[in-house]
Amino acid sequence: MNIQEFYDSIDESYENVSSRMMGNQKLVEKFVRKFLDDPTYGQIKEAVDKMDYDEILRTTHTMKGIASNLEFTHLQQKSAKAVDMIRAGQREEVLPVIGEIEKEYQKVIEQIQKLD
User: Fold this and answer.
1) Which of 50, 53, 65, 85 is most open to solvent, judged by the fewest CB atoms within 10 Å of its CB?
2) What's the whole-number average pLDDT of the chain?
3) pLDDT for residue 34
4) Residue 86's domain is classified under what CATH number?
5) Are 89 and 53 in contact (CB under 8 A)?
6) What long-range pairs does 106-109 form, CB within 8 A, spacing at least 24?
């Protein structure tokens, strides 16, 4: 699968990310592949295991930014929702949203692994 097919497979816009990176397809692919090694998702899981809401806030905010830069809008939106809920004091209610982040993250990772 090429990078454009990857973005189609996760229902995201290759055109938007390509525009962000000045049409450089190799650069887009480089950063998408680097996402596999990013520690943020693991940090979110560790924070949830410890029920450390300050750390959940920090790590979901980081995921929101990374997802935004790569135009993973579904992951970005779920991360933003978690950030907003924690900031609003909805700590216990945020855990199902973390589950949504996990599902979206896994979908993205599975598709990245299919890149040529």
Assistant:
1) 50
2) 97
3) 98
4) 1.20.120
5) no
6) 107/10, 108/10, 108/35, 108/72, 108/75, 109/35, 109/36
- Report d(CA 3, CA 102) in Å as an integer: 22
For the chain, give me the number of helices (H) and strands (E)?
A: 7, 0
- Residues 6 or more apart whose CB falls under 8 angstroms from that of 33 comprise 112, 115
By CB atoms closer than 10 A (0-12, 13-18, 19+), residue 113 is: exposed
Which amino acid would we find at residue 48?
V
The residue among 16, 94, 70 whose CA lies nearest residue 80 is: 94
| pLDDT at position 86 | 97
For tokens 């930014």, the residue is 65
Q: What is the pTM of this model?
A: 0.94
Total tally of structural domains belonging to the chain: 1
Residues in the chain: 116
CA-to-CA separations, 36 to 25, 64, 85, 110, in angstroms, rounded: 18, 16, 27, 10
In one-letter notation, the amino acid at residue 17 is V
The domain of 93 spans: 3-112
Structural tokens at position 112: 């990245």
